[in-house]
Every structure is written in structure tokens, then in C-alpha cells.
Automatic annotation (TrEMBL):
<keyword id="KW-0694">RNA-binding</keyword>
<keyword id="KW-0804">Transcription</keyword>
<protein>
    <recommendedName>
        <fullName>Glycerol uptake operon antiterminator regulatory protein</fullName>
    </recommendedName>
</protein>
<comment type="function">
    <text>Regulates expression of the glpD operon. In the presence of glycerol 3-phosphate (G3P) causes antitermination of transcription of glpD at the inverted repeat of the leader region to enhance its transcription. Binds and stabilizes glpD leader mRNA.</text>
</comment>
<dbReference type="Pfam" id="PF04309">
    <property type="entry name" value="G3P_antiterm"/>
</dbReference>
<dbReference type="InterPro" id="IPR013785">
    <property type="entry name" value="Aldolase_TIM"/>
</dbReference>
<dbReference type="InterPro" id="IPR006699">
    <property type="entry name" value="GlpP"/>
</dbReference>
<keyword id="KW-0805">Transcription regulation</keyword>
<keyword id="KW-0319">Glycerol metabolism</keyword>
Amino acid sequence: MPMFEGQAILPAIKTMKQFDQLMDSSYRYGVFLDTHVAQLKSIYRMAQGQGKQMFLHADLVHGLKNDEYATEYLCQEIKPHGIISTRGNVILKAKQKGVIAIQRVFMLDTIALEKSYALLEKTQPDYIEVLPGVVPHMIHEIVQRAGVPVFAGGLIRTVEEVEQALKAGATAVTTSNPHLFAHYKKT
């Protein structure tokens, strides 16, 4: 996992307490979930001041519509390390603006998976975030078929599940589980 300096875990931050813990940790990369548009500039300024490279889940920014105009604003004003979204137009705009684009896909059933493959062909993201991340054989299939690095996320609760996702080919695991943050913290 040289892409993220050996980080197996990308901490997914949902609260200011988790944000403070990330700022005091050795993790360099993380993900902002469930943020408010009014706090974006300040939390990104703090993160950058601590040398943190933060991805932003654009669909979960309260007070901001998740469309290409909002994405343009995020890329120009907030300057996240990358944008995560389920929406193809958001991914395409992030790529156009030179920001790492992570297409989030849900493995609900075969029809949803095939629609996701069609979307991935259209958007050609830099990374794919696969949810739920507890299905190693599907992670392997997506890595092979899409030819794009994969993050595994969602419902991963144990060290064993992290290890299975990584063994299946995931580049990293996104998780909001603080026990997993602590287990994988770089020394």
C-alpha cells in the first residue's frame, strides 16, 4: 500500500472528537464524513496545518447539494485531497478539476453491481469505494474487472475483516471504527 504510506486504514471521521484524535495521530490520510458546509474551510485548514491529506464525502456535506456546481466549489475553495461520491456527475467534475475522484458503489445485488460497472466505465474514477466491504470475493472481482484501486468500506468491524479485504485486493479500508484506527495506527 505505498499509495498511502503504508496505511491499511483510512479513518472515516464523523465527529469533532474523532477529528481531534486524527489530528493527534500518525495517520496522514483520512476521510471526512457527515460534515457541515460552514465548518469545511476551518477543518480543512486545521488538517492541512497538521500535514493531513483528507478525502471528502461530497454526498454527506450538510447544507450543500451534491451536484457538479457544489463539486466545483469544493474543489476550488476547500481543496480536498479527493472527493468521494455515489454520483457520476460529481466524480466527472472532480476529475475535471484535477482532484482525486473516488466512485462509491454499493453491492446490493447483481443488477446494482452491473449498473455500477456501467457507471465506472463512464466516470473512470481514480479509486472505487466498495460497500459493504465484508465480501472479499466481490472485492477481488471488482479489482480485476474494473482495473482501478479499491477501498473497502461499510460493515467492517474486526481486524480479521480488514485483513480479508486487503488480501482480496483492497488498497485500503475506510472505517469509522475507532478500535480499528487504534489497531492499525502506525508506530
